[in-house]
Design a protein that fits this description.
alpha/beta; ten-stranded mixed sheet; 10 helices; 29% helix
């Protein structure tokens, strides 16, 4: 893959397509003996008028450390793609928070814009689901605002590797040796797979996650058998042209092989990076690979539709944000 420092630019240089009033704060999950610390952004319902908040070169309309409006709120966790960051899908987070959801987007250690030292290692495919589990553990038990969360209404949004992460958390079992699934990763992951250098640790589902929205998920799941344990609703998005190691045919196979029919959307004219929030002009000029779409494709208009459709899915599957 070719994300590398692109994720850093996205994390600091994206602009929202419209002013929103979501509360915004940052949190850190402490390191343990076996796991690194996790950093994340939290978006929340906020009753105060927005202000300008500067995040590196980006200025957003938000309220830092705004008191969280409401109680027993549904929670949605966001997992970024390879080399990305916690702001890559900020527009979805803002939309959900404005509608009464708590949203937490983490940086996966060793596979984010500021640290890629494990991004090429097969072990990251085992660590990523563990990151999300640790984050949820912290949010519902040790976070000072834990009482704001309804632990029975937790959802997940994942893009690319984040989509893979969500499928594992839902109960899917990857088959890294399946010859029908091309290895879309650079060395050393593909070499590790060929040499059977795959961690022996189990990958287990997290039953606390009740619904998943997945965009262009990286797939090592080619059979119904590998997906048979999934029993939660899924909204599945596929770009038309794919890219960066994700094949539209693999996403289509997921739609067919999932045990319960997903809410499946193929986005005409799109490529893989269309699921990232729209780029500001400066980033579009310097990183055309991830910011320039196919001729005739309007990423800003698409994200208005994407945000609204994801919001409606979580409203339907997790219940209205005002429920107790």
């Amino acid at each position: 893959m070719r994300f590398l420092k692109i994720g850093f630019l996205l994390a600091l240089g994206l602009t929202a397509s419209s002013a929103r009033a979501a509360g915004l704060t940052s949190i850190q999950v402490p390191a343990t003996a076996d796991n690194p610390a996790l950093s994340a952004f939290v978006w929340s319902p906020c009753a105060m008028p927005p202000k300008e908040v500067k995040l590196g070169p980006m200025t957003v309309a938000a309220v830092r450390n705004c008191p969280i409006a409401g109680s027993r709120l549904p929670l949605v966790v966001i997992s970024h793609g390879h080399g990305g960051g916690s702001l890559n899908h900020h527009d979805i987070a803002e939309t959900l928070a404005d509608a009464g959801f708590l949203v937490v987007a983490l940086n996966h250690p060793g596979d984010n814009f500021s640290n890629l030292n494990r991004s090429g290692d097969i072990s990251i495919m085992f660590q990523r689901p563990r990151d999300v589990k640790r984050l949820i553990d912290f949010l519902v038990t040790d976070w000072p605002q834990a009482e704001k969360i309804d632990p029975d209404r937790i959802g997940f949004f994942g893009f690319s590797r984040g989509g893979y992460t969500g499928l594992v958390l839902a109960g899917a079992v990857p088959d890294f040796h399946d010859a029908t699934v091309p290895c879309p990763e650079p060395a050393p992951i593909c070499g590790e797979i060929r040499r059977n250098e795959i961690p022996a640790e189990p990958l287990s589902r997290d039953p606390r996650i009740k619904a998943l929205a997945l965009a262009d998920p990286l797939s090592f799941f080619s059979t119904k058998e590998s997906l048979k344990a999934i029993d939660v609703p899924i909204q599945l998005w596929s770009s038309e042209h794919g890219g960066d190691g994700v094949l539209p045919s693999n996403v289509g196979a997921l739609a067919v092989n999932l045990p319960h029919k997903p809410d499946f959307h193929v986005v005409p004219g799109s490529a893989h990076f269309a699921f990232l929030a729209p780029c500001p002009p400066a980033l579009a000029n310097s990183q055309s690979e991830i910011c320039t779409d196919q001729a005739g494709f309007d990423r800003v208009a698409f994200h208005r539709s994407l945000d609204a459709t994801v919001l409606e899915f979580f409203r339907q599957t997790l219940g209205p944000a005002s429920a107790n």
